Amino acid sequence: MSRKKTLSRKKKISLLVGAAALVGGTAVVMTGTSQASVACDGFATALGNNEAFIAGQRSAPDAQSEARIANRVAVIEQIKVQQKASGCTVGEGGKGVVAGGAAQKPPVAKPPVEKTPIATTAPVKNPPAQQQPATGGAGNGAGQVVCPGSTVTLFNEEGAPGASSGQFPVGTTLRVTNLDNSKSTTVKVTSTSASCVLLNNAAFEQVREPGKFLIRKARIERVG
Fold first, then answer.
1. Beta carbons of 173 and 187 less than 8 angstroms apart
2. For the chain, which terminus, N or C, has the lower number of CB atoms within 10 Å?
3. Which helix (H) or strand (E) is 186 found in, with range?
């Protein structure tokens, strides 16, 4: 009887040690999965933003819709490359919700407003010249933080640094800071989109990290 009790205690100790090792291994796997999930969520949000913009342009097209859609398709393809390289599900979007939590359909109703500012877009190109000193720095003072938690990507438009927005009217001045490298750019909204803010090529180059097409940690401020 004493030998049976002794063997039983040894088995219990072995089982406890094995369970502890299993718990430790599970914690490591869960940590790695959590980090990968954060990156994949950022790519999915950016892809969803661009898909929502394309849907809006197709729902209420104007003379420049085809060019804008072609630009967004190119951005989506670049995001898919990043998804594949990061081990994410390629083509997984943000389920029709744009940055800032707005549903896809409400922004679609805004393109008609865009037709009026388009006619004045060319003259608006002059103001960025006086904003250049603030680019890459902290700006002239603290602004009002807007769209907390939003990611920022780009739309393929040449010209002086500028932005498009679905939440702020044309002429609004916004400062976007990439918190991963502390670079910032101050730009005016020159057109509308389905996102809180999108930067054109020139503006995005001022704050981007090499090889990346999405700013996951961004601070967006309204300064004018």
1. yes
2. N
3. strand 183-192
